[in-house]
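[audit] Reproducing an earlier prediction to check determinism. Same input, same settings, fresh worker. If the tokens differ from the archived copy the diff job will pick it up downstream; this log only records the rerun itself.
[audit] input (127 residues):
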Amino acid sequence: MPRPADPSRCPITPSSTSRGGLHLHGRKDHAVQVGGVNVYPDRIAARLREHPLVADCVVRLDSCLAEPRLKAFAIPAPGAEPQRLAAELEAWCRSAFPAPERPVRIDCGPALPVSELGKLTDWEAAA
């Protein structure tokens, strides 16, 4: 693979090991593979936030599925009915996104899932 002219544009963050090897730390562009396609969860979350019923959301790779697909967690906008939000977003996503970018599961709640330290974290399916 040719070396990019500008190292800051390299999508993977490498570093040297003590034995002269190369260690890859992950993608700087936060892309994930879904059906052989590079998908950018942050970009999809930004599009979901444009929906009038969404106050905020986060999109992640769903690790519970046999094939990698996306899932979303959305906070309803003020005045939006949480019960309707997931169904409304699922229908909107079918027309707004190609299949690899479309979340296959949308969970809703009053706040984004965070860890004890206040950092965004993964979530389980709503019961």
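[audit] rerun output stored. Observation attached for the diff report: The radius of gyration is 17 Å.
[audit] end
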